[in-house]
# Entry
Amino acid sequence: VNEKNFARRAAALPTTFPAPHFPSEMGADTKIFDSAFAAPELLPDLAELASKILSDHKEELLQYSPTQGQPYLREWIAEYLTDDGCAGIGPNNILITNGAKHALDLICRLLLDEGDLVAVTAPTYFTMLPIFRSFGVRFIEVSQDTQGIIVDDLSAHFRRLADNDLPLPKIVYDIPEFHNPSGVTTSRERREKLIELCGRHDVLIVEDSPYRRVRFTGDDIPSYKALDTGDNVLQVGTVSKLIAPGLRIGWVAAHEQFITRLIALKSDGGTSALLQRLVYEFCMSPAFRGHQPQVSSTYHEKCDRMVVAFRREIPEAEILPPDGGYCLWVKLPEGKDGDLLTAKACAADINIFKGSLFFANAPVFPENRTVPKNFIRLSYSYATFDEIDEGVRVIGEIYRAL
Ligand SMILES: Cc1ncc(COP(=O)(O)O)c(C=O)c1O
# Structure
């Protein structure tokens, strides 16, 4: 294979196959705390529904379907978002995609050219970093605290870019609910401030909100999309965290002028009609109403269990228990090597992620290039209580021997 045949965006792509990673590829003894897999006990039983819809709607389900997504599912999502405080949303503001990641990839295709700047929090959702990088962008890293993205920091970046005659970022990418990985939920004040700043500078906000309905404690805070009055927010949603990730149904909610263009870029022949119908019928069924509280309470219990285990095993670790979501962000004391801890844990069949994965590490201003090594990220979503206890016990042992 001649390297010269590849596009520029392929230059940094891996040349080896990915290591085994998914539960179906791992041994039974492996403790799976790395990716945010769904709790197996929460996956709904969709067998009867699938069989019924295949006989009732055979032609619809086995035919090509509209690229934008089935009208009834877009209608349902528009109502769901309206109930969530988003005014003026109708089915034409929705594009159905193959999960949130597909939606985010399409948004990048629509908005980003090589050399553009993208603002991300430090840390940020690590899966987005290679997606952004494949578009040849450069990063602005914005700090976060317990209230969420530090808008004053972003504003200082904007000023500095302007002082250096550099363009502002094309987008600010953020996860305001139960941020992955930090677990932080952005306060209402910060949300309003971010929307005001980005609106004033005509910078788009990409709101990635997969966990919004997986809240354990505290009250809902209006989403960026709900607070925005200027059509400056593209919101991405998914059924992965509330129903099942294998269904691969997500969406973009945005102004029609984004949706029409995104449709033209979506070259997948339409998201599976079968899966759209299945999701729709499940969401319309009485089972869905009972499902949501069960999801929240199950993940709440698993989260508490992992927090307690860490406080027992590594009391000096700093943890901010999240108000929802699937993940825990653990700060080890300065000088402790989270990368090494991760390597040793994985070698002992305890799969976790090193925190350093979650930093963009290619910021426009070189002095911002700091990748702390004293973090690890764990998902409590997939494991059982016993696996959480045992896995964190072994992590504690490895930590003490570092
Ligand atoms: C912040 C964030 N965005 C997007 C996704 C992916 O969602 P989907 O399964 O719909 O692609 C995840 C999944 O872990 C996530 O944590």
In short: The chain has a mean pLDDT of 95. Residues 36, 99-101, 125, 175, 180, 208, 210, 238, 240, 245, 250 surround pyridoxal-5'-phosphate (CB under 6 Å).
